Amino acid sequence: MATLPSRPQQRPPLLRQAIKIRRRRVKDLQNPLPQTAPEIQPPSHHFSPEQRALLYEDALYTVLHRLGRPEPNHVTEASELLRYLQEAFHMELEEHQQALQRVRKLEKPTFCLKATVKQAKGILGKDVSGFSDPYCLLGIEQGVGAPGGSPGSRRQQKAVVKHTIPEEQTHRTQVVTQTLNPVWDETFILEFEDITNSSFHLDMWDLDTVESVRQKLGELTDLHGLRRIFKEARKDKGQDDFLGNVVLRLQDLRCREDQWYPLEPRTETYPDRGQCHLQFQLIHKRRATSASRSQPSYTVHLHLLQQLVSHEVTQHQAGSTSWDGSLSPQAATVLFLHATQKDLSDFHQSMAQWLAYSRLYQSLEFPSSCLLHPITSIEYQWIQGRLKAEQEEELAASFSSLLAYGLSLIQRFRSVFPLSVSDSPARLQSLLRVLVQMCKMKAFGELCPNTAALPQLVTEALQTGTTEWFHLKQQHHQPMMQGMLEAGKALLGLVQDIIGDLHQCQRTWDKIFHNTLKIHLFPMAFRELQWLVAKRVQDYTEAVGDAVSPEMGESLFQLYISLKELCQLRPSSSERDGVMALESFHRWFQPAIPSWLQKTYSVALARVQRAVQMDELVPLGELTKHSTSAVDLSTCFAQISHTARQLDWPDPEEAFMITVKFVEDTCRLALVYCSLIKARARELSSGQKDQAQAANMLCVVVNDMEQLRLVIGKLPAQLAWEALEQRVGAVLEQGQLQNTLHAQLQSALAGLGHEIRTGVHTLAEQLEVGIAKHIQKLVGVRESVLPEDAILPLMKFLEVELCYMNTNLVQENFSSLLTLLWTHTLTVLEEVAASQRSSSLASNRLKIALQNLEICFHAEGCGLPPEALYTATFQALQRDLELQAASSRELIRRYFCGRIQQQAETISEELGAVTVKASYRTSEQKLRVELLSASSLLPLDSNGSSDPFVQLTLEPRHEFPELASRETQKHKKDLHPLFDETFEFLVPAEPCRKPGACLLLTVLDYDTLGADDLEGEAFLPLCEVHGLSGSEEPGEVPQTRLPLTYPAPNGEPILQLLEGRKGDREAQVFVRLRRQRAKQASQHALRPAP
């Protein structure tokens, strides 16, 4: 039996044994395997054969001498209870029969009814004051037959306790004065021999004392009291009044009863006499068993409870189920009978349950929540001093033992409550709640006053347990073979186990300890483990030194990544105290960086070479147009980026250099891949005569390169250049990152772009020949073939080839191919159009071909965009073909449109000007022209003057064939002539409204001997003549001043086209006149007026 500690600040021995906590010191790091505290040995729950035999005898005795009706959920049959006891005590049948025979021969116990008269309510008021002075007489009537069970039969029983039970067997309560609701709460032990022929009797009387008439009149309160005075005057002095009785057969009672019983009358007078609250318990005295004679009842019951609960738990474990704390009906029945017969109080039953459960919990597996009920019961019923000294010592020892055992479980919670078992968190939380509830008990505080606070004990246990767990894991990972590489693998495994444990602490265990004890386990575990890890990693890296082999480099890299992951778990600054042991752990791995970078590049290069060698240059699918090597290369580059992100070197300057190396290696691999994939294409296509297959491979090659270009373009994002730039801003010169990393990237992209353009150009060359051939054939088709039919071979050729290329090329490469083909097509059209300037038919076919090609290459927005289509070359060619395909009259009309535009844009009057007024009379269909004057004409004669006159002609001539030219009078030697002449032209309005229709005013210098000289030309658009639109109101016709202009000295494209049409007389006449005017203009240099 454990004893309480006598010295202050001294824990019980079991506590001191369970929580030998060692704080982490520097010396801990130097001691890899410290001596761990021995595990707590739980008290045994097994009894010796002698103890078990005595306990079995007492249990059988309890069943055989059972009293009262069974409880609703209890077992009725004694045979079933006996079979259960045989199983619970592991008795053989012969042993059981012998023990049962011995117990039956033992003397019967003394049967007793423990009756407690609690209170009554609503009794009759017999005194003149309206109250009574009640007391009770009670006893057991034996051997005279049982009274009737019906209320009617009980009312006819006239006998009372005074007359039926001997006076020495009669018990009496205290008198409660002047009340109708008396409270006694008195207990009596009533012995009986045969329960079947015994009955319980209770009479309630009103005590009558002798009082004077004056005293009674003083207490008189109503008419009822007056009648009571008269009634008492007729009875004997000092005779008590009957208030009611309760008569019960003992065989109708259960082992325990607690209820209200109605008080029955002796006559029919006053049938409602109130109720009486009674408690009954059928108990034993003078039990004949050895255990009852030699041990206290409480101790025997404790041992019986321990034996039966142990059996219950074992039975559930045998059935692969967990015991939930519920006793079987057999066990509950036996324990209830035993506690009742032994007359154990509720408190002692709770204490026995606590002692049994707390002992069994340390050796058997069942939920710790089963301990909460006895803890609560003890706390509720605890009264200091109600236990004997040995019982207090036993209870204190149970507290200390369970606390020590609980702390040992907490210290080893990682192995005792593994997360691989789903209910482990709930079990640990339940244990903590039990310990918290136990340490909060008044009994615990009084019996274990020197115990430290539970959070402190648990914290120390967790610290010690964390250190012990680390050393156990270190021993577990100890390599079988000695060597630096094996030691590194062992250390890596240890760090990974620590990371897993910290994840569990952070996600699961920390919440449990904080919710129950306000202890943050995760920061504590991290703090303990990081110092232990740091020492071992630093020692290992120092032992490795600077000579790092590839295998060692790989091992160190994995260790570095694991430590990085471990550091990322560190608690927040509010939860962390002290210095981080792993704060600058990356410096320990600095010698291994070159090995890591070289290994990364070597592995990537080998993967690229293997991927290209296995590539058959076949698209992966309809939607994926690159081959397998492009996918493998993308994966390879992604792995390099992943390695860079894993490394994430803390030092900014060194991180920049590492990133430069990663980018350099990646760009180098890209160019190596281009060389390898082209060589692979040549290898596969060599010896093949199928040009289509070669074209397919070339398409796949350029698609692979395009895919590679996209992957390379993502490097800034994958390697987090922006974040790196912010980190290195303080240590690098401004622009150094841009000049280094971006320059490397742009150089690689430029190289890839060149390779892609070369491949696409090769594909384009194969199509350009066909396009040129079909365009040449287009102009040689006979004249009877329609232009739309003539271009069909060209369009079918493009449809087939472009569809093929669109199917086999990715969009970027297909767009590049379209651009090359479009540029080449325009060039071919230009050349052919230049050779067919004189043929409007051929030019018309070329124009229609250009229109269809524009539609084809645009492809409703799926081909070239407008900015790529409508280049300057296209626009010039379109204009040229429009002119070449036009008729001669259309060209003449366009010529005059151009001269009208030139007239509108001319502001200078260097050649002079003419002023006219022109109007149209719709009713008469007459064009009226008033030529008012000319001014500032050039002096074309040798005398420094001119003899001007004006020739008026409606152009173009084919629109006004019937109207001849008109002339004004000739003015001698006048540079500012006033003509003031009017001309009328009979002409319909419709030709005047057409574009290009104009009044040509040709100012000439009359020459008597030779041809007239040209002063200049002016063009008045007829569509702007007043009255022609019909909307002008009649009135003054406005004057129009027209500056004189010269025709272009070198000719115009339209005139050149017309001049080439030798067979068109109208065109030749027009060109001859225009050439003449141009020649006249070129003979006169601008001279200032005299």
UniProtKB/TrEMBL annotation:
Places the protein is found: Cytoplasm; Late endosome; Recycling endosome
Classification via CDD domains: C2A_Munc13-like, C2B_Munc13-like
Chain ranges of the MHD1 domain: 557-677
Entry GO terms, CC: exocytic vesicle; late endosome; recycling endosome
Residues that span the membrane, as ranges: none
Swiss-Prot/TrEMBL keywords: Cytoplasm, Endosome, Exocytosis
Gene3D superfamilies per the UniProt record, alphabetical: 1.10.357.50, 1.20.58.1100, C2 domain
UniProt keyword Lyase, yes or no: no
Record-linked InterPro entries: C2_dom, C2_domain_sf, MUN_dom, Munc13_1, Munc13_dom-2, UNC-13_domain
Coiled-coil ranges per UniProt: none
Domain MHD2: 788-895
GO biological process terms held by the UniProt record: exocytosis
A UniProt-annotated Pfam family: C2
Boundaries of every C2 domain copy: 92-239, 910-1035
Primary site of residence: cytoplasm
Family as reported in the entry's similarity comment: Belongs to the unc-13 family.
Record protein name field: Unc-13 homolog D
Species annotation: Cebus imitator (Panamanian white-faced capuchin)
Lineage: Eukaryota, Metazoa, Chordata, Craniata, Vertebrata
Gene name linked to the record: UNC13D
